[in-house]
Amino acid sequence: MIASMKLIDLVDSHAERIAEQWAKNVVKNPFTPFYHDKPVEKLVPQATRFYHRFRDLFMKPKPAEASNGYFSNYAAERYTEGVPLQEAVYALILMRRQIWLYAEFQATFSTAVEKQQAIDSVTRTMLMFDYAMYFITKKYRELMKLEWFEAPNT
Amino acid sequence: MSGSLKLVNLIETHAEPIARQWARDVRKNPRTPSYHGIPEDNLVPVGVKFYDNFRQMFFTDKPADTSQQYFARYAEEQHQRDIPLNEALYALIMMRRHIWLYAEFQTIFISAVEQKQAVDSLVRTILMFDYAIFFISQRYQELIRQSIEETLGVVNVLRMKNSLGAKQGPYKTAIMVALVLGAFGLTYYCHAVLGQNIIFTHLLYIPVVLAGIWWKKKGILVAAGLGGYLLLSHLLFLKGMPLTDDIIRAAMFLVIGTVVAFLSEGITQAEELYKPAN
């Protein structure tokens, strides 16, 4: 866990800066066309919120339970905004990538020991995002009330 | 890239045991309940297929383009098995985890150089999965839209809708005017000319039901109008006959019209709920 502290501290103290980079990326990424006409300054707060919550989500002993509430809310907000599901999840993936791009740029993990820390951080971040994908798609499904259209046995 | 080659070779030569471990796990994981009833032997080929395709998707210059086809097919197969999207994605995530969990993987990245290779392999695998999540979600949305349109197919013919949202208003009005005038004429003919109160009134349910389907609550006005006309015609032309039967018929027009209107409104609401995610 201590190995990942470097990354958490970096994300927390540079949340605004990383969020700005994410917003600039998401408004032009070909996988997120919904965001292309959205003003960057309106997108930054949602990413900043995520980066500030990152420590909390990362450190909780039960990451699945901790991320359920946060990512279900994220899904509900995006659904209300009319963001298609695949773009909502991809925008979140871009938030994660932006962390690594920033960490790489800042040369956060350079020594051999730090490389090992990088693996730990990647693994733990991925675990969090695995849950995120599950909870977001689950919430979208509930909001779309897809069970209305399903046969009773499914 | 040579570091990643180790990983790819390991996956390729051990596709079957890794897939079997994944199948056992997915059959009991609390986040994948839809897989619990599928026999292990039916699931193993799904895992093997993924691990067999791993090299191709891993080493391509255009990972997005190469993986799109494979993951779209994965989405189709899982959708066909009635697996919800969140479970289909989680099952795929578990396929990735099982690569790392596989015992022999732990022994191939030991030295400092190999640790660096491990990071490279991780990053590249994660990139592949990022595309996977996007393509599978996208394909599922398309498949769900198709299923809903198929489910609503017959209803949409009656609603005179080609697809979600495509309306044909002017035709509806013309058809309804013709049906209501026909109903008025038939009522007049039976009451005034034949002097009978025979079962022709069953035909009046056609405009009542269609008005409810097309205009929902507003369509109840057609039911009320036809019921009112039936009673008025009875009072004018069938003075010696009891009114009770026609009062019941007029009331039934209202009941049927209201039920159909609410059902039609429910379908429209369901469509509206679905639309924002398109």
Kindly list the characteristics that best describe this protein.
heterodimer; A: 154 residues; mainly alpha; Globin-like; 6 helices; B: 278 residues; 2 domains; 11 helices; 76% helix
The coarse silhouette of chain A is globular
User: Oligomeric form of this entry?
Assistant: heterodimer
Distinct helical segment count of chain B:
11
Largest interface: A-B, 36 and 36 residues
Distance between the termini of chain A: 41 Å
Strand content of chain A: under 5%
First CA to last CA of chain B: what distance? Answer: 39 Å
- The parts of chain B where pLDDT drops under 50 for at least 5 residues are none
Order of helices and strands of chain B: HHHHHHHHHHH
CATH architecture of the largest domain in chain B: Orthogonal Bundle
The count of strands of chain B amounts to 0
Structural class of chain A: mainly alpha
Tell me how many strands of chain A there are. 0
Assign the CATH topology of chain A: Globin-like
Q: Please, what is the average pLDDT of chain B?
A: 84
SSE blueprint:
The complex is a heterodimer of chains A (154) and B (278).
Chain A: H1 2-13, H2 15-26, H3 40-59, H4 63-81, H5 85-105, H6 112-143
Chain B: H1 2-13, H2 15-26, H3 40-59, H4 63-80, H5 85-101, H6 112-151, H7 153-159, H8 169-193, H9 205-215, H10 220-237, H11 244-274
